[in-house]
Design a protein that fits this description.
Number of helices: 14
Radius of gyration: 22 Å
CATH architecture: Orthogonal Bundle
Structural class: mainly alpha
Membrane topology: Multi-pass membrane protein
Domain Amino acid transporter transmembrane: 46-430
Largest sheet: 2 strands, antiparallel
Number of domains: 1
CATH topology: Hydantoin permease
GO cellular component, one term: vacuolar membrane
Shape: globular
Protein name: Amino acid transporter transmembrane domain-containing protein
Transmembrane segments: 49-70, 76-97, 118-143, 163-181, 188-209, 229-249, 261-284, 304-325, 346-367, 373-395, 407-430
Length: 439
Amino acid sequence: MSLELDDLDKKTNDFQEGPVTFEAYSEAEVDFSDEGLVDIDRSHAGSSFLAYFNVVCVVAGTGTLGLPYALRLGGWIGIFILVLAWTMSVYTGILLIRCLYANGKRRLSTYKEIATSCFGIIGGWVTFFFNAWILLGAPILYIVLSGANLNELCKGTAGEIGALPWSIVSCVIVAVPFILVKSMKEVAWMSALGAVATLVVVIICLVVACIDRKTLGDVHHDAVIWPQFPIALSTISFSFGGNVVYPHVEASMKKPKDWPKVVAAGLSTCAGLYFLSAVPGYLVYGDTVKSPVYESISDGVPKIIAIVVMTFHVLTATPILLTSFALDVEEMLNVTVERFGRIKEFLIRASLRIITVVFVGVIGAVIPHFDDLMSLIGSFANCGLIFIFPIVFYFRLTGFRNKPFYEIAWCCLTILMGLVGLIFGTISSIENLIADFKS
């Protein structure tokens, strides 16, 4: 693939001209790049290496352990879809950050601001809704998973107090770093630990699967299962959903020009983990594989370690997603030290974040079938935010006719991938919701 991703297209066809305004930036935040473009202040930004860990921790997530089941649904053809989704998500991740700079005047701050620049207030709020759904919905599911895992680990002991109380404990654990840290740079150390945790779980599942292969009989595999193929495509596509945090991850980098390398390296690492998990998992357990895959491996110490480490991972990934949401809200409300002073700014920021954590905990506890409801909106949100919106916004901001034919063809294929996942993922989620409420 010879797409030229490093050249920033500064043409502003269809972009509304006007005076440069800095309302979204405090005086301390305004800075100028070498090209005269107004950028955020990066004097205290982190390294590209830390940004790489942010990408890996957010994207890899529990998708690492769900892909063997996706192959069970769709067959071995899912490996091809995995490669396709990987390359497409790298491309759209780069385009999304290009859109932040596409007006040639100042760096936009958020996904919502990009959408507003393209399609006005309505487009901005629609995008913000999808963005917020993922940034809050995924942590809710993570908290529920953490509570269930912790209760399972304490089974038969005094610590077996129920999944709900353990979910509340998980909220408290998550709240501490979420309230204390202010930016994506400060939460990067958690990303590094989360990335290592994911690798440990994948290795455990890989080793135990190889051992189980010697004791298991013949298992069934399919090259392709056409009736379930669209659902498998949706599941695989969702596994590369990091666009919701990319603007804030890039903002935390000292060298923003390294972003194409960071997102490519991060998503390639995730793809490598996916292959290590999906291929052996489906090969060994076939049509009996479960999600998450560690539910399929033999009982014993390795399985317990896998559950412990994955619980640690979701507890480290949750503050990253919540921090990205909080930064969007604080940007919209203009919560800055310059405006309120250091103490008052901290109190306002802490209050907003405490409310966010309480909201996450309450929704996870009281909303029935939230996982299937999350899948329903996620079908729209993830496919739109990953495969469709970045390309539409990029063409809107920089023009369509000035692109080479092969790039337009690749963009059309990517949008088609997003639409297929959106349509069939939505149908599947609606069917699951109907079945849940009937039962």
